[in-house]
Amino acid sequence: MTTRINKMLTALTIVVGYTMVLTTAVAQPTPQTTKEVIKGNASIKTEQLQGTVEYVEGNTLLVRMTDGAIREFNVPEIRKFIIDGQEKTVHDLKPGTKLSATVTTTATPITERTTTVGTGTVWWVGGKTVILTLPNGENKEYTVEDHYKFNIDGNKEATVFDLRKGMRVSAQKIVEEPRTEIASNTVVTGQAPPPPAPKRVVAQAPPPAPAPKREVAQARPEPAPAPAPAPVAAPAPAPVQVAQAREAPARLPETGSNLPLTGFLGLLFIAVGLGLRRMSGTGNV
User: Is the pTM of this model over 0.85?
Assistant: First the structure.
């Protein structure tokens, strides 16, 4: 029984201890952080840009400026162009389109200031370095500038050189981040390139008709006569034997004589003489 009571008291003590720790942690002040945006004086700049569209692909636009330089623009989808009084997108632009842009840029300097106020107890200090024990029991080291001010016990300002161990101080940390806010308003107008001139079709005289071919009457070649029927071969005549005179011998044979010739000539002369005598006698009657 006694053992059981001791265990209950021990558990109760642990619970009470945790409750006190939590209450102390809640009661300790935590650093307070505030942020503010401080705007400076804005500057306004107006710029005129003129050029001719060279190439368009997707949202990329290449423009040849008036000075001859090529500039590349990444045009958002919401950007509108007023071309010949009609609203166009970058996808409607054609090479040769004349563009004129009025760009109004407003630059405003902005400082984002973050202020943190925290408390702690000086645990150690030396020169510009101080170690503070924060409300959560953590020790943290800081390097402090000469002009930085601490608040001691909530009513007295002190530098890092005035701090002593055990002092309860509050510190204010200010972080400023300068930036420039730029707002741009661009109005782009333009003129589309003129449509291509229609091609002039020059009437061309039709090519002269080819001269008719002059057909020269050519005598038709007479048809070759039909080949005559082959004559029936007559029976070959019997061979005629022609008597061929034998060549006279160069001289009479020794057996021949001129006597017969002399006799023939004598008879001839006698006949002639008789004929002449008869003709003469007939004339004398």
Answer: no
